[in-house]
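Note on ligand handling. Small-molecule inputs were canonicalized before submission; formal charges were left as drawn, and no protonation-state enumeration was performed. Where a ligand contained multiple stereocentres, the stereochemistry in the source SMILES was retained. For NAP, this procedure yielded the string shown in the input block below.
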Amino acid sequence: MHVFITGATSGIGQQLTLDYLKAGHHVIACGRSPAKLEALSQAASGAPLTCLTFDITDTAATFRACHHLPHTPDLWILNAGDCEYLEDGYMDVTTFRRIIEINVMGLAHCIEGCQHHFKAGQHVAIVGSIASELALPRAEAYGASKACIGYYARSVSLALERRGIKVSTIYPGFVSTPLTHKNTFAMPMQVSVATASHKIQRGLARGQRHIYFPWLFTTLIRLLGALPYTWQTYLVRKWLMPATVDS
Ligand SMILES: NC(=O)c1ccc[n+]([C@@H]2O[C@H](COP(=O)([O-])OP(=O)(O)OC[C@H]3O[C@@H](n4cnc5c(N)ncnc54)[C@H](OP(=O)(O)O)[C@@H]3O)[C@@H](O)[C@H]2O)c1
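Structure output:
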C-alpha cells in the first residue's frame, strides 16, 4: 500500500510513518523542515520512503508538492496541525489566525492539492480532535479549528463516498507528543504516541469512519458534548475553571 502522511516529522505523524514503513508499506512523508525529513529518512534506514517538503499554509507550495506524486496513494492521512491556547478569553487575532491557517486552511490546501489523485477504492483520513466535541477554556482557536475540521470531514465524505472513496475522521484525546509537552495543565488519560498510531492504524484497517481514542476519555467528552449547551457550560465551569475572586 502507498500511504501519504502530512505532519510526518513529529508526534503522531512520525510514529505512523515509521509504523507503516515497518509493516512494509511505501510512505510519502510530508513536512516543512528539510532537516527533520532528513532525520526521518535516516530513521527509516532504507525502507521505501519518499519525502516532500512544503508548508501547508503556503497554497502554491502545497499544490506544487502534491501535483506530481511518485505513486498514487491508497491511503491519505491528513494529520499536520498545531495547537495554541488563548489567554483567559482575550482575543488574540495573531494566534487565532495562525491556528486557523494551519489546521483549517492547511487541510483545505492539502485536499485541493491532492484531489485530482483521488479515485475509487482510496481512503482519506483526517485528523481532528476530541476537543471539537466540547467547548473548553482557552481553546477558542484550537477547538474552533477542530470543530471546523469535523464538520468539513463529515460534509466532504458525503461527496467522496459516493465516488467510492472512504473518509475517516480521527478524534484523539491527549497523546504525548511535542504538541502536548508544552501544556502546563493536567491531561487525563494521556496515551503514548505508539498507542495512538496503533489505534489509528487499526481503525483505518477496519474502515471505521470515526476513530476515537482513548475510549473512556473520548466517550466521557462525547457524553458531556451531547448535553444541552447550558449544562455543558455549567459543568465545564464547575470542573475546569477556578472560581474568580470579585474585588
Ligand atoms: N497530541 C495530542 O494530544 C493531539 C490530540 C488531538 C489531536 N491532535 C492532532 O494530531 C495532529 C498531530 O499532532 P501531534 O500531537 O503529533 O503534533 P506535533 O508533534 O507537533 O506534530 C505536528 C506535525 O505537523 C507539522 N506541521 C505543523 N504546522 C505545519 C505547517 N504549517 N506545514 C506543514 N507541516 C506542519 C509539524 O511539522 P514540524 O515538525 O515542522 O513542526 C509536525 O510534523 C494535529 O492535527 C493535532 O491537532 C493531537
